[in-house]
């Protein structure tokens, strides 16, 4: 009788004992890992869609775009938001708003290192708000001395600063302390006084300000000057003087100039770009969902998330929102439909007609609290929370399944080692018995 190799036989038999379990565990782990990967891709597509939605539904952006054009450049610009109504207007710019700017009447030999009093108070008032600089706190290095440079830093860095900026300007060999209001308009005149310093030159310097630029409000007329509607504003931007239109003036016209024309109307191309962006983002999401939830057949592989309840819920909620009415209008009435494959399509002519005939309703359908884009964002929120989102929870659950399988595989390795040791011992003993038998038989040969 020939002997058997105990190691080979023990390896083969121990492998047969555990191999069915190894195959099953690996298949389960691969399945769970595939689902985690697919959920990650769906989550990424959902985030991209949500980003596109939010970019079109912010405080300064919307789906519907209007435009305002002026007949003459150089005097004002205009911006029209989604609420703007089409129309033609005349605007005359009489005056632009300016900030107050003045210099303190300081001695001619003033420079950044000139020492200032370290007692008393320097008070500023701008538009009813007051700031008091305690001169005893202006010294920054603790040497008991304070300089003009220290004072500038104290003014600009004070937490109660009401809107004044201080700077040292050198001109024609002389240094000047300049004070400017940070906002334009008559109400933002800088008023300043010094008291209790014991230094007349310092207090007189703020009493005798040299005005460089007087604070002025912007003045425009809707219509011709002196016969139209006069409007004043502390800022050069007139917000919403016409519904949905902001006007920013840059230069005053001469008294005898004619008013400048301004036309407000729909920006159909920009609006179409926004709508197309929304449709493309939605269709990318649908493509990701379809890829991973396909039930298979006709040469199409079954998706690893086929019949997944979380993704079915996303699809169902989205479908419900997209078919609902918002502000008395729905997507189909605006030329946006969903085909049999779930993809969104745009009828550009129908959409353009809806914007032309009922732009306000179209804007209300898309934008605003509780309307289409806001509803989509709210629907996606529970799924996309970073720490506790439903998709994150699903992936965590699947990862835990993989970890449990890893534990089973570790146990299987121990089972293999035990089987191997047992078989090795058995075949080693068998070889010994066979060797004894062979020896006994040779005695009778």
Walk me through what this model shows.
Helix 1 runs antiparallel to helix 4, helix 1 (6-55) runs antiparallel to helix 7 (372-384) and helix 5 (309-322) packs antiparallel against helix 7 (372-384). The mean pLDDT is 88. The protein is 44% helix and 23% strand. It has 8 helices and 19 strands. The protein has helices spanning 6-55, 148-157, 200-207, 268-293, 309-322, 348-366, 372-384, 390-443; strands spanning 66-70, 76-80, 87-95, 99-103, 115-116, 121-126, 129-134, 146-147, 164-171, 174-184, 190-195, 210-213, 218-222, 229-233, 237-242, 245-249, 260-266, 336-338, 344-346. The strands form 6 sheets. It has a 5-stranded antiparallel beta sheet. The chain has a 4-stranded antiparallel beta sheet with strand order 9-10-4-12. With 445 residues, it is α+β, with helices and mostly antiparallel strands. Strand 6 and strand 7 form a beta hairpin.
For the record, give the distance between the C-alpha atoms at the N and C termini, rounded to a whole number. Answer: 14 Å
Instruction: Report on the biggest sheet.
Output: 5 strands, antiparallel
Give the oligomer, counting copies of the same chain as homo and different chains as hetero. single chain
Give the total of beta strands. 19
Outline = elongated
